[in-house]
Amino acid sequence: xxxxxxxxxxxxxxxxxxxxxxxxxxxxxxxxxxxxxxxxxxxxxxxxxxxxxxxxxxxxxxxxxxxxxxxxxxxxxxxxxxxxxxxxxxxxxxxxxxxxxxxxxxxxxxxxxxxxxxxxxxxxxxxxxxxxxxxxxxxxxxxxxxxxxxxxxxxxxxxxxxxxxxxxxxxxxxxxxxxxxxxxxxxxxxxxxxxxxxxxxxxxxxxxxxxxxxxxxxxxxxxxxxxxxxxxxxxxxxxxxxxxxxxxxxxxxxxxxxxxxxxxxxxxxxxxxxxxxxxxxxxxxxxxxxxxxxxxxxxxxxxxxxxxxxxxxxxxxxxxxxxxxxxxxxxxxxxxxxxxxxxxxxxxxxxxxxxxxxxxxxx
Length: 363
Known about the structure:
- It contains 15 helices and no strands.
- It is an all-alpha fold.
- The protein has 3 domains: 13-159, no CATH class; 208-259, no CATH class; 265-363, Tetratricopeptide repeat domain (Serine Threonine Protein Phosphatase 5, Tetratricopeptide repeat), CATH 1.25.40.10.
- The longest helix has 22 residues, at 90-111.
- Residues 1-14 have low confidence and may be disordered.
């Protein structure tokens, strides 16, 4: 079983967590993207990490701080100060405290010393303070009386304030491609959508297909309500790609493809999904239905010539090179053909062994 909860010990005191812990549950409810992973944690290795981050540890540490906020006035004061003076959200304020705690707590685990609450709170007072210009031999500004180099110098990065502190950052790939500059809420749904996508990939890599399906469907449900469904097509596309790679999900793939086709208003995307569906059917041996899908597509979108190239490619993959060559040679005679389709058609003809030097070039 994945070891999530810290059990009570003499060095941990009130920071111990047990099943059903109130602080942990509070944070877990703020990170719904992690709930399915948490519920299925027994499926995964003890050292559960996704792109270098343990999302369950993330929730656990913030849960410890949530418990502190209910019992420690010194921590409560810092928490309020961060919100009032640094304009942080409650979640970000708690996460900034957690950053210092995690560093402090690591020393406790390494040195096997009792947790020093007084020193911890004193260090929290430096959150948001620029200590980069301090001399290592200066007195530490936390008030300990010790030199900075022997007190808080190793915590310098932990004192940096970020409005996005506490977001579940598991990677950038499907919904986020770099650090957003226009979002200041660490609980913004866009972060949850991206985290679920990364969690689903992790589950898939550990053969937990049921878990991955559940997580991707959760993303679909959230995407359909966030910003008027702005990311709905993205969520359905993620689900289609996932199902496409697993034979036992063939029917789910077809259902998701049909739904996305009906959902999108973008003709090009709709056509690409139809081509993907037709190619999938052909791969499963249903060439006749695949050809029907392509034929209907040509009727509904006659000017999208690239789909005819896709049709030829499908025919070639399924050992019908002569038919593919005919489609391609007919295609390159069309005067209105776009450059991309023309280039790809010529390249495929050459792969199929056709001498293209005598063929018309309308570009």
